[in-house]
Design goal:
eight-stranded mixed beta sheet, about 30% helix, Immunoglobulin-like, alpha/beta, 2 domains, 23 strands, 14 helices, Rossmann fold
Amino acid sequence: MATAARSLEVLIKGSLFRVRAAQAHASPNERAVVLVHGFGGDAQDTWKAPGADASFPELLADDPTLADHDFFVFQYVTKDLRPPAIDNIVVQLKFVLKEYLRDSRVIFVAHSMGGLVCMRCVLSLLEEGQSQVVAGLLLYGTPMTGVEWARYAQLSLRLGGFIVPHLRWLNSFVMGNKQVTALAEGSEFIDRLTGAWVLRVLNGGHPKIPAGHRAWFPVRVVTGNDDWVVKESSARAYYSEIDWIDVNDDHRLLVKPRDRSEFTYQVARNFLADCRAWMNPRSLLKLRRHLDEVWHLHECKRIADWQFELSFDADVLADDPGPFGVPGFRAFRVLRCSYRRQIERDYVKVGFAIGNIAAGAVWSDEFAFLHSVHFGAVPAAATETIRDRLRALLHGPEGWARVFDDVAVRITPDGKTWHAVDAGPLEQVNDGLVRRFQLPPHAADLVGREAIIDVAFRSIIPAAITDYTMDFPWLCDGFAVRVAIKGNPSYLVANQAMRGHAAPAPIREHQGKVEYSSEELVLPGSSIQFEWAFDERATP
């Protein structure tokens, strides 16, 4: 006890102590380790095994491999019959971080209930939008999903030296102890802590929460095979083998290594090394953004078995009235656009958009198909002329009939019984037209279920455009696309811009026809662009 007392420098009486290292540092280190004891513990006895030469904090402070760390021990009241609530302890710990460790990257090493104090402290800082100073969390025997109250009551009696002769007095003691009641399985405190931790911290935090209110830092949990106080399932909670280590110690000996050869000590040393090697705060923000993108993939629309068949007319002369009686345009036909998806509304949309801006303005997950005309390969001088002609076509009540023909939308739950989806209201937007196709009343039960949507129609593209881009706006589980150029094209090629592992190879039937397919998962933002040229003999 005397050795431990001489090694602790009092910073806040009864609350915060600095661990004196054998080799004193000239200036504070950037990294600070704060040890937080558990229920019934204190700054000294919690960390030192009986008869040992040095305590856990002393072993760490004198470890030459950890010379770039400063070590502190935080203490709070827990041995009284009426100790403060955990949230009150958190206020004290936040004061310590603000006043003494403001410029440090803090790693918490916590035992038992001390781990819950540290978790609640992290969450409190996040909820307040405070700059996150915590860079790691190592938990020894922390009951993240609670404990049986009787086990903690027994532990308290042993540690505090209390004698409670009758069960009713034991029950009275437990019910009056705010820390014990908070630790119980299913308690309001545990439920609130667990829910907030999963939402704001686990896996980097939910992306819908502002970045400043989320956390990303390494967490490791240690359980004891002989721990009769905290079950492994509670101490391990939602962490997997990557972040979990099991050792052969009981609840109290988990944090009482006698020397640096013990497993429990090496776990801590290795974790601190991992935290040191972990990415810097700026890199963590980049990682968080990538995690957000992955999360959004789970939230976005998913389709499967996309069958897409297109054809383009090549034989259009300069003065040919073309399809729909409009000179200078070619016929574009979707022979088949079929895929499985979740039906979330009692309608789907089909639309026409002029250019990328208009397409982005009208697009939503409610579309079955959006035919958009893009001008990437068209000379700038010709683009505005084509835009003006298309705008004139879309204008007025007859606009839909000027750019669409033979539109057919149908839906089936099983691939056998098809339901025709009827054309509904038409909405005219800037540089675009959108029409709802309403599910018939007898198919209303398909809403909320997965079904197959099939779309077919004929439309137009400007004769000056000789390319088409197939975009993947959703997560797509397998697809096949077939493109045919009717007439006499001199070539037909395709360029892929695929995200993920899908790298489909083309299957050429003969000149003017090409097919791409893949059974892999295609990520949103992928595309395949088809380009072609026409034989001059066909278009003098």
